[in-house]
Design brief:
single chain; 274 residues; mainly alpha; MetI-like fold; 0% strand
Length: 274
Amino acid sequence: MKRLSYTNGLLYAVLTLYSLLTLAPFVWAILTSLKSPREIAEAGSIWPQVPTLAAYETILQGPFYQWLWNSLLVATVVTLLNVLFNTMAGYALARFRFRGRGLVFQTLMLLIMVPSQVTMIPAYMIVARMGLVDTHLSVILTSAVSIGYIFMMRQFFVNFPVEIEEAATLDGSGRLHRFFCIVLPMARPALTTQAIFVFMGIWNEFMKPLLFISSVDKYLLTQGLNAVAKQYAKSSSWNLIMAGSVISILPILIMYITLNRRFLDINDQSSGIK
């Protein structure tokens, strides 16, 4: 028992240290955003001597609201499309028996190992030929599906009890009715987990907006923060940059606090039938 308690104590100590190291950059960003440019230039104490919200007032006077709205719009649409398409594809690979299913699945597993940077130029050429450059639709269409989450949903449905669907079939339920009215509600933990990570991924996406979008009023938040950072890089106005970063974190933080109880352990498929 003593050895077990020592092990647990060491584990908690390591996790506490890791948590502090993880939180340190966020705490530093918040404290810096509350400082004045002069105080930042003096590089004194990490704690603000005279806390001020001037940086937040300044940055919210610019096009920040427009960038925030653009990111919310794109992230929401991309999340909804991913949840729908990835789930349908995963369900088809798990339930349907068709010629070439194994080949399709193996091809997807090969494609998942291809870095996204490799496909960006071909994606840009396709988007350009469609006349969608400098539009939010270019980011949405090129992010509408994710092979990784197709695989995740496929694994979920492989372990999903088929008896439930068979019982619904005996009651006269069709394929679409079973999928949308029975399977999806019972797969809510997996759908929520997928939605959280897809939203976070597209919210923090930088390369695609940088490649596809050039108009300032159409910038996503990551582009806007990059523009602000370049604008004030030669001055000591890091409080503005940190204020923008803190505000950009808030939607992710709110989403996590709201949905953290629905995180799904992929290995615990029983949560899908509770």
